[in-house]
Amino acid sequence: MPLTELVHYFNKRNRLVRGGEDEGFRFVDGQVRMHFGGRVFGTRFQPIVERAGSQPAGHEAHLHVLGATAAPAQTVFLEARDDAELVHLDRMARTLHALNFLLEREQHGGFLALNVHPQLIRAVRDHHGHVFETVLARCGLTSDRVMLELSDDGFEPVAPLAAAIAEYRERGYRVAIDNFGRHTSDLERLEQLAPDVVKLDRSLIGHAGHLSLAKRVMTELSAEVRRLGMSVVCQCIENPLQLDVAREAGVDWLQGHLLGRPAAHCLPVPRPRRPRAAA
Predict the structure, then answer these.
(1) Residues 236, 250: contact at Cβ < 8 Å?
(2) From CA 255, how far away is CA 234, in angstroms rounded?
(3) What are the residue ranges of helices labelled H in the chain?
(4) Residue 187: C-alpha distances to residues 33, 122, 160, 218 (Å)
(5) 230 and 197 in contact (C-beta within 8 Å)?
(6) What angle do CA 34, 39, 44 make, to 5 degrees?
(7) pLDDT tens digits for range 167-204
(8) Hey, which residues does 263 pair with through a beta bridge?
(9) Which pLDDT score is estimated for 98?
(10) How confident is the model at residue 59 (pLDDT cuts 50, 70, 90)?
(11) How far apart are CA 235 and CA 202, in angstroms?
């Protein structure tokens, strides 16, 4: 379906759900914009690269506020009047990112990483991923191209988050636990959650003068996480010393301003090499 028709479809669907004429999507200057709460939002993509060779494997989408306002884009979630509005906004933001990802032609199987607000997990009791799966289908994307990032902050007991992760994975999404190590590095809890990917918190990469400790902690933690069958991402890499530490720690993927800042367009993802035919 052409992008202009997709925008029209989602706007019509949005009006049926919300009834508002002042919110929705617009196709402007070759990109999709989201109007919500009197503000205009766009997408910024940050590459997630392979440890060896630093080739992009996928991109994380960030909500970006356009215009003169100084408030960060994420503050719009704090202004939601109730759980229903927050869930609706969260899904709108992910739809915005999926639409803009469609415009990126040089991905060749690269994945799209999308954040899911923790309150959505609390507010939606079951069938996680079903509604967004219909959004992806309209966009011509399959769930295996999408990695959903969830935070473990504030979930006690573990059961509701573990159930949501299991439902997402059953629908074919990859699931990442974000900012692991910020509040806890509980490996037993992580094993119960059973994500595909673990993104280490920025505090673990260390700063100048503390990198030897960071290397030891990250090496041990990465080995334990990988032993559980999960891939590891080191994020917030901002200088060459941190990059060296992350690579030596044995993580799978790397992310940070040194490797690519959030930008309006994705970096090209190389085409997979085809095996040579036997002579």
Answers:
(1) no
(2) 6
(3) 3-18, 75-78, 83-102, 118-123, 130-139, 159-170, 187-193, 211-227, 240-249
(4) 40, 23, 18, 14
(5) yes
(6) 50
(7) 999 999 999 999 998 888 899 999 999 999 999 998 88
(8) 45
(9) 96
(10) very high
(11) 6
| Residue owning tokens 């979630």 | 77
| This prediction's pTM | 0.92
In whole angstroms, how far apart are CA 148 and each of 26, 69, 75, 217, 244? 25, 28, 20, 26, 27
* Euclidean distance between CA atoms 266 and 72, whole angstroms: 21
Task: Write the CA distances from 39 to 72, 105, 118, 145, integer angstroms.
Answer: 11, 28, 23, 29
Of 59, 40, 61, 41, nearest to 49 (Cα)? 59
Task: Single out the residue of 118, 189, 123 nearest to residue 159, CA to CA.
Answer: 189
The tokens describing 151, both together, are 């935070």
Prior bond of 262 cis (ω within 30°): no
Contact predicate 34/93, CB 8 Å: yes
41 sits in which H/E element = strand 39-50
- For residue 210 the two structure tokens come to 């503390």
Token pair belonging to 125: 């009791």
N-terminal to C-terminal alpha carbon distance within the chain:
42
Show contacts of 54-57: CB within 8 Å, 24+ apart. Answer: 54/254, 54/259, 55/269, 55/270, 56/110, 56/260, 56/266, 56/267, 56/268, 56/269, 56/270, 57/110, 57/111, 57/253, 57/269
